[in-house]
Design a protein that fits this description.
By secondary structure, the chain is mainly beta. It has one domain: Neuraminidase, CATH 2.120.10.30. Helices cover 4% and strands 39% of the residues. It has 3 helices and 29 strands. The strands form 8 sheets. Strands 1-22-21-20-19 form a 5-stranded mixed sheet. A 4-stranded antiparallel sheet has the order 2-29-28-27, with no helix packed on it. It is globular.
Length: 395
């Protein structure tokens, strides 16, 4: 039985696990074809990544078109590079897929703005394209939202899902996804759960029947009391609804959180999979617990169902097991952990991977090209356990 919890964060740097900076950049840069930078009016200070996927040999990064000046919304770098290096990003799968903004993608065949990507067990990459340009400037709906599935062996598109109008709203912004292959015949019969952040709700896609439906609940909306964020002394306001998602295959639960809240919620995947809810049907949503401040990324270790999250104000990574109520502080770093936009769990090496973005500086336009602002960080949990922080985090 899940236990509701109150998260009280106690920070102590000596208890942190080691942060391995895999890659870092002052500002992102792409390896452009000839004259591509001039044609696209590339502005590196407007490029910030929000999505991460790691394969055997590559790291994929989603760079949404939040503002003007983003040339490619999906990029790739080699996985094995010198620690702390700053490789130039390559447009994925190629530059032809990112022609939007030059009057050459009127058919919407390419990629408009991608926030998250996920790989499945069939070595395919699922790309969630929001179809929204300049989301933090004037929110232009330029193409229908869609899922684009790439075969990672060939880097060719094997499937495109354009969502029907009835599951969307005029201001829908699809930002995150979870692929659920549990008990459905593998990746060919997977369910995909997606967050609609601006018109708060969840969109479910049934790949077996090629159908989609929408669920809405007040817990998916932002809380005005938590719309202000303070990171390293800088404050900004953002009223974002549900965006953080993670999935427990063993418990059959989807965990979710709006950005503008201090709460974490859950819903059984059986309720998501049974189809559109009836008009007066009550969704079985549970308050899992409260955190010390807002957070964006969520990840889960499927071995024991430990949930990892990052309280924004505290520049830390914490863990909590909702079954045993075991809690621990994983890492704390006031510089390197400013605004963890994405958390990922990797079974292969028992590690947490994350994107640290200093988003507050991009948002407030105080970013400096002379400082490290963007990092891919790996935190190994295998060598040792953070001892001494097993109480006073959740109750």
């Amino acid at each position: 039985m899940l236990r509701h919890a109150l998260f009280l964060l106690f920070l102590s740097p000596v208890l942190s696990l080691e942060l391995e900076v895999v890659n870092q950049w002052n500002l992102l840069d792409f390896q452009f074809p000839f004259d591509h930078r001039l044609i696209n009016n590339f502005r590196p200070e407007r490029n910030v990544f929000t999505g991460l996927e790691i394969t055997n040999d590559r790291i994929f990064l989603a760079v949404p078109r939040l503002w003007s000046g983003v040339s490619a919304t999906l990029a790739v770098i080699p996985r094995h590079t010198p620690p702390g290096s700053s490789p130039m990003l390559q447009a994925y799968p190629n530059w032809e897929a990112h022609k939007f903004g030059r009057g050459q993608n009127d058919s919407c065949d390419g990629l408009t703005s991608v926030y998250r990507i996920r790989a499945d067990s069939c070595n395919r990459l699922w790309v969630l394209d929001s179809g929204v340009n300049l989301a933090l400037e004037d929110f232009q709906r330029v193409c229908p939202p869609k899922l684009v599935v790439f075969d990672l062996e060939t880097d060719q598109i094997v499937k495109t899902v354009v969502f029907p109008r009835q599951v969307l709203r005029p201001n829908s912004l699809l930002t995150n996804l979870v692929i659920d292959e549990t008990g459905h015949g593998g990746c060919e019969r997977a369910f995909v759960y997606m967050s609609d952040t601006a018109a708060p709700g969840l969109v479910v896609y049934d790949s077996r029947h090629d159908t989609a439906w929408r669920l809405m609940h007040p817990t998916m909306f932002p809380d005005p009391d938590f719309s202000d964020y303070t990171v390293a002394g800088e404050r900004f306001t953002l009223m974002d609804g549900v965006v953080g998602l993670t999935h427990s295959p063993k418990l059959g639960i989807l965990y979710f959180q709006p950005l503008a809240t201090d709460r974490l919620f859950s819903i059984p995947t059986s309720a998501l999979q049974k189809g559109p809810p009836g008009q007066d049907e009550e969704l079985p949503i549970t308050l899992v617990g409260k955190k010390s401040s807002q957070g964006l990324g969520l990840a889960l270790d499927p071995k024991d169902d430990t949930i990892f999250f990052s309280p924004v104000r505290e520049t830390s990574i914490a863990a909590w097991n909702p079954v045993t109520n075991h809690q621990k502080l994983i890492a704390y770093d006031p510089q390197a952990l400013q605004f963890a936009a994405e958390l990922r769990w990797k079974d292969e090496d028992q590690s947490i991977w994350l994107l640290s973005t200093r988003f507050q500086k991009f948002f407030r336009r105080t970013i400096s090209p002379h400082e490290v602002n963007l990092r891919i960080i790996r935190i190994s949990t295998a060598p040792r356990v953070a001892s001494g922080v097993t109480n006073h985090l959740f109750y």
